[in-house]
Amino acid sequence: MSSMNTNSSASERMMARPVGMGHPGPNETKRVPVRIIVADSEAIFRVGMGKIFALEKDLEVVAQTDTLAQTFNVVSSTPADVILFEAGLSPNPAESVSEVIRRSQPGTKIIVISHFTGEEETVDYLRRGVRGILTRSVSPDLLVRCVRKVSVGETWLDNQGVNWVIEAYRTQAEHGASPKQQLRLSEKEMLIIGGVTQGLKNKDIALEVGTTEQVVKNYLRKIYDKLGVSDRLELALYSMHRRLLDGYVPLSDRDASGVHFPGVPVPGPEARQSDTPAGANGNSKKQ
Predict the structure, then answer these.
(1) Residues contacting 28, CB < 8 A, separation 6+
(2) Per-residue pLDDT averaged across 211-235, rounded?
(3) Residues 209-224, buried b or exposed e (16+ Cβ, 10 A)?
(4) Is the pTM of the predicted complex or chain greater than 0.85?
């Protein structure tokens, strides 16, 4: 088992080493334990992990969940350092992982536990922000080591997983296609990216596109996942660095003929009334 060090300057959250007769020295303080949320559908695994962590003074289980809905609620309200997420909790674990990360408290890191994780799933999990991947058969010792390493900012993969990730990035570098073609961004996604790059707020983008603020938020989550960014600033920087908006007409500069993209034909007068995004002509129609 290997761990890739992504934050070598971080210090482990372990109890300070006692000095003398068990009393901490003047410059030593007790560190708070690593707070863990265990999200697993099988009681035997939840109980087992709870007993393993109970033996470690620097690790503490602060919550346990056994359904996906319960996990979403708990991670949004319970401060934690690490979430152990069983892939079997969801029929679409990759999408659920992204949602767990979005709902979690800032700084929370997620470890996925699965019976088997192939090459495609491993690379996808890492791109979505997962910091560790374990199998169901992991030993107690490796489980504890993984949680400690991930809690201080390292990424935990087995040797095969490391090779898969390296190969994925090597392949991406060798076959660098146009980002717009590779990622298949829709016209509405391009509109929203353009609005973010201009510094518009969600409600302003929604007004221009002709939809609701909530729909814009939903689109942004999908865009973040596609591009591998985590917030509006990263999205704007990514967009400018990859030149995603080359040839794009800003929302504020649109005329009655709508938004033009290279290679996208302009609709005729008959089609404009029905095809122009609601809101551009003042007749906002919520979705």
Answers:
(1) 16, 17, 19
(2) 86
(3) bbbbeebbeebbeebb
(4) no
